[in-house]
Each structure stands twice: as C-alpha cells, then as structure tokens.
Amino acid sequence: MLYEVVFKGKDKECNLAKKIDNSLITVPMTGVLIVRDHICVSVLYSFNGKFYKAYEILDLKLPLCISNRKSVEDLLENAIKLKIHFEGVADEVVRLKTESNKLPLQEANQSLDIFF
Fold first, then answer.
1. What is the pTM of this model?
2. Structural domain of residue 68, as residue ranges?
3. d(CA 27, CA 70)
C-alpha cells in the first residue's frame, strides 16, 4: 500500500525511483497486539511479500490501578520508547514521500499499457 502511495502516477523506472524502492524495503512494518492490560509491539519483516520474522521491541504493561511511583515511571518510559519508534518510522515515510515528489510523472502512453 505504501508503494502505491509513493509511486502513484510517477515514473517507476528511473534511477531515483529504484533508490526510493530500495529504501521502502527498509521501512519496518510494525505490529501492535493488545491483550487485556498488555500492549506488545513487534517489528515484522517480510521477504518477497511473505511474512518472514517478527521481533518484539516493546512489551508495555498498563497498570489497571496506580499502585506506586515505579509503575508510573515504567509506563512513561515505555510510552516514550514507543513514541520514538513510531516517530522514526513516520519520519522515514515522510522523507521517502517527499523524495518521490521529485520523480518525473509517468507518460500517458505508459499508463495506458497497464490496461492491455
């Protein structure tokens, strides 16, 4: 889906497009699993469009009631780690989208070829 957003209406065969395409592969897919009071965040890797591996990067336990200062500190530290991770991914996606704006537009003849 990200590929379609970045390359919509753009020439995908030029050198810059190939560079952006290679950079898109390095953008991690992030999976979030929420079970009761736990949030598990994992980075998912795929190979040729198939699931390959997942690495847990954060297991965040949400305290149902605040019992002590330590639990609040742990929650805030993990929330900051999660924020930093998602900001990093978002910054990379924005950088690639901005770079894709420099790509030449796809010629009208080329866009008609996909229908035949």
1. 0.69
2. 2-104
3. 34
Question: How many structural domains are present in the chain?
Answer: 1
Residues 94-107 have pLDDT tens digits of 999 999 999 998 87
Structure-token pair, residue 44: 């998912």
Residues with Cβ within 8 Å of 88's Cβ and at least 6 positions away in sequence, in order, are none
Residue 29 lies in a domain: yes
Helix intervals (H) in the chain: 2-7, 15-25, 69-100, 108-113
CB 52 within 8 A of CB 45: yes
The HSE-up count of residue 110 (CA atoms within 13 Å, CB side) is: 10
